[in-house]
Each structure stands twice: as C-alpha cells, then as structure tokens.
Amino acid sequence: MNVLPELDERLRRDVELVSHIDAVPSILDVVCRTTGMGFAAVARVTETRWICCSSLDKIGFGLGTGGELQVETTICNEIRGHGEPVVIDHVAEDALYCRHPTPARYGFQSYVSFPIWRRSGEFFGTLCAIDPKPAHLQKPEITGMFRLFGDLISFHLDAQERLQASEAALSEEQQTAVLREQFIAVLSHDLRTPLNALSISAQLLRSMPQADATPVLARMDRSIIRMSALISNVTDLARGRLGGGLSLSRSRDRERLEAELQQVIAELRAAWPDRDIRANVSLTKNVFVDIPRIGQLLSNLLGNALTHGAPDRPVLVDVKTEGGALEVRVTNSGAPLSTTDRERLFQPFYRGAEGMDREGLGLGLYIVSEIAKAHGGTIDVASEAGETVFTFRAPIS
Fold it and tell me: For residues 106 and 41, what is the distance between their CA atoms, to the nearest angstrom?
C-alpha cells in the first residue's frame, strides 16, 4: 500500500467529490457498527487505479484518503469487470475465495464490496469493508444496507457534480458582469478624451498661422492613434471573449514584417514628437507570424511605454530573431511597477494603482498577452531600479 499524490485531473476531482459528501463518514460509521467490521471505505476503481476516497479504519489497515492499492490485487477490480457485489463471511470456509490471493495478501477473513454506479451507467468504484475476523454478512439487512448506501453515494456524486457546474457557471457570469460594468464605465470615459482633444485642436487650427500648426497636428495624430488602438482593442476583446480567442493569418515575409514594425515606430514618433524613441529592428530570419498582429503588439507595448514611462528618458525598442525565436523588447524608465501591478497587468481593464486617471481602457497589455498566446509565445515584464522591460518571445516557426 502507498499514498500517491500523482492523480490526474479526473481522478483528483472524483476523490474531491466524495470528500464533499457530508454523509460519507456517517455511512462508513454505520457500516462498521452494523457489520462489526473494522475497516470500511469508498474506493474509486478504474482499469489501472484503486484509490481510497474516504475511509474509517479501526484495525490499523493504514489506508486513508488518497491511499492507493495495486488495482490488480483487489477484488474490487473483479467487481468492476463483472458488476456484481461480493460478500464473504469467512474466507477460510468459502469455496470460491479460500485460495484467492487477495485475502492472504491483505490479511482479512470477512469481506463485503458493492459497486457504485453513476446515473450515466458508468462504474465509479465500490463501497467495501474488511476485517481480520469472520463476520455474518450474508443476510438481507446487510446486503440491502450496502446496496442502499451505494445508491445514496451515487446520488450525492451526481448532485455534487451538478452543484460544481452551477457554481462554475455562476462564477463565470459574475466575472462577465464585472467586465461588462468596467467596460461601459471606462469606454465612456476614454473615448471622449481623444475626441475632445481632436475637437479643441481643430478649433485652434482655424485661428492660428500654418507655421504654428505642427504641435497641434501632432496632438491630433496622437488622438487618432489612441482612438484607433481603442477600437482595435475593444474589437479584439469581443473576439477573444465571445469567439474563443484571436484568429491569426500567418505568413513568412521578413521584409514585410520589418516594414510593419518600422511603420508602427514612425507613427508613434510622429504622435510623440517630444519623446526620444530609440529603435533597433534586426530580423535575420523569416518568422511565421501574423504580421499585422505583431505590429499591433509592438504598438500597444510602445504606446504603454510612452504613456507611463519617464518623459525625459528614452524609450528603447529592440526587435530581433535569436535562438530560434522572435523577440520584441520595449524598455522605459520611471518608477518600478508594484508586485500587484506586475501580477495583474495583463488582465482586461486593469490600469494600475492610479485607477481611472490613467489613459486607455486597460486593454492594451491584455491584447498583447492574447497575441502572444495565439502565437504560442510568452510576454514577460521585469521592473526594478527605475526601469521596466516588456519582452515578447515566440517561436520562429
């Protein structure tokens, strides 16, 4: 006998389902008191595993929740095969089981085990009991009790499963409701900001000489880029949440990818003329990616760095193919991110400790993480000593 924690997800869930049935300890206690046997258990039995879901041990058998027996050494495995209960009053006097290896292996003389069937007809396991002494078990009140308790456990298993499914659905609905409220509140706030900036800038242009219009045009460009990013991010949020994830249209075109990234950098330089953006784009290999999506990823990362980085320090962009991967790194200076910020940056609508005063819907970095995930890549952030670095890596092919 040994206790093995390495259960797959389905078996672990089944053991937990039994552990959540409040009636099981009472059932095992009644079984032991009624039969006079010293060990009773509910077991999950499959073709390859015998796992104790719950037990009552008064004889030092040494098998608790999660304990495991070699399934081929158990009579429960035979029950799984033929589907009938097994009841033995006295192994030594039983013509069928007196030479059976299992009683000798585990040292019992009395044994009873009834199958537990799920409503779907699937075999779940057994309600069983053993004792080193003989016991008078083959009588209607004992077998009827075991059959009733087996049906009761089956009923509770189905009830627990339905309850967990309902709780999961409720939790998902609550999360959706929270996202919906955040979405409405933030969208109404942040779409107005660039629209107002465009309106004011247009009024200024009407009243000023052409030579003085350059800073105003830059502000207008910045507002247009922000609005475009907002629309793209909202669209991608809807696609990701309602459509099962972002779709990709991949291609291998190093020159087009490089041109896309340089265009993104040029647009943001025009929109932020007072900021120092230092970029190095060096692609030495073709990369199998969705080129517009990688451009969107860089735009979101660079826009985030410009918005939240120190305005008097350069923002660094480094794009390269190295070690079988495409790497996009964006670095900005400024106050380091808090632990809470680092843990939640890539969640939708999260905008940091500064809350609603921060620009944007809080979707940019979430979309970055979705693009990384869709490409089978990763997005990491490191922030310390006044420097924050976002690094995207994805396989070349």
Answer: 15
